[in-house]
Structure prediction request, 582 residues.
Amino acid sequence: MGSLKQQLSKLFEESLKVTVPTEVEVEPLVAACAGKFGDYQCNNAMSLWSKIKGKGTQFRGPPSVGQAIMSNLPQSEMIESCSVAGPGFVNVVLSNRWIAKTIQKMLIDGIGTWSPKLRIKRAVVDFSSPNIAKEMHVGHLRSTIIGDTLARMLEFSNVDVLRRNHVGDWGTQFGMLIEFLLEKFPAWEDESEKAIGDLQEFYKASKKRFDEDPAFKERAHQAVVRLQGGEARYRRAWAQICEISRKEFDKVYQRLGVKLEEKGESFYNRYIPAVLEALSKQGLIEESEGARVIFIEGKNIPLIVVKSDGGYNYASTDMTALWYRLNEEKAEWIIYVTDVGQQQHFDMVFSAAKRAGWLPDDDKLYPKVNHVGFGLVLGEDGKRFRTRATEVVRLVDLLDEAKNRSKAALIERGKAAEWTEEELEKTAEAVGYGAVKYADLKNNRLTNYTFNFDQMLNDKGNTAVYLLYAHARICSIIRKSGKDIEELKKSGSIALDHPDERTLGLHLLQFAEIVEEACTNLLPNVLCEYLYNLSENFTKFYSNCQVVGSAEETSRLLLCEATAVVMRKCFHLLGIVPVYKI
Prediction:
């Protein structure tokens, strides 16, 4: 069926074919409007007039083009009335009956029927991607939260999503770590976890040694060569360090409810030589100052794919990973979620892929690639978020603190006496982790945002706490009515006679096109804004329209249920667990 906007666009497409049969493939310009003239507007008249004037047309200007577009619209139960305003804008008022009927159909058939229709079948979302043996920091938190939401929106749109964790599990730091492990604990294989202990401290100690001892540094370089050459003992040590790191990462992913499939840098090693060989045969790789590089038009530095010492680097891995995703995984859309600082690197990789003919020159065509950049997380002092002077905040501690603060607030409100310990724990987790996610996602991802527990855990304003409580209140209204909502879905019907009922109904119906917009433009904040406005529209409706005990009780309970269903799907897409009582 497509979204409301897509359905209207189809009607206008039919009209445009009849109105200007000589103009081929005119795309309908349909947009929601908040004015008093209508719900949606078609804005093709002016641009069409500039194309057809002077070609012996019967039209006298944009307004007459607009009149013709309106007259040629096919009959549809969606539309109540149309009018033409200004320079040919065609305003559409939707039928109340049709809005009500469509909401009711969703309640019976499920919210899945409102999923957007995208043009692709398979996408790769590359997100989180921490470095092995290093602590995950708030930058990884942003990548993980944003990437998970983009993946969820694509999955809801019936796209097969490959969620890829491109961990930094290969590189010179492993020589240093392995050499330190072998030196300090010769019998490490019997008790490796005990030997390494806190991986963060282990990393710092080996780095200190690496920086201060030239002989150790040389042995560490040799260890990299032995590891990359496949020597069994070095491979086992490497695998063990990776495994300990993974367990640490999983603590974060479990708390956030995020699923990822790891395909780290090491996975692509075996493919690098063949990919570079193919690029060389195309004449794309050139020698420059001892290194092998790809020159990119408009950039004053080339993309180095083989270093002067013969080693591979990020560019060789990223080019190969892109090749693999296009050719082996058959992805049509590949999305990379990293901080804005990596924008230039990815621009160069994408440009090189276009030169190689892997990607079309036109960014609107598929397969396509996007770098989804994001800004910094700041502390309240306006500087990069840390705890003490230089220490990076551990993500597990950060998430646990959000949960503990949330739990303390619930206990303060007397919930420990009313709820079981499990209910208290589950709600504290849902609210605490949800608050951290929403505080990040509600901002345009390109901006920096300030991490502030008091603001994110506030139950007023545009916060997860406010929205989760709003959802719980709606559930409470339905419960207190004593009515079986499943029965009402089958036997009752919705009417939108009050202006606030209609505003809420129309907003509910715009859900699919909002998800589509958030997905297409890779901006989760669009969905957050929709969710907050939905909550505000519901509050206005509930303040002005009595639900329980009114003549319209059945219809209004169904509107409450539809609002709760759409809110829950928004929460799901944002990776937030809903709460049903407060």
In short: The CA atoms of residues 122 and 317 lie 22 Å apart.
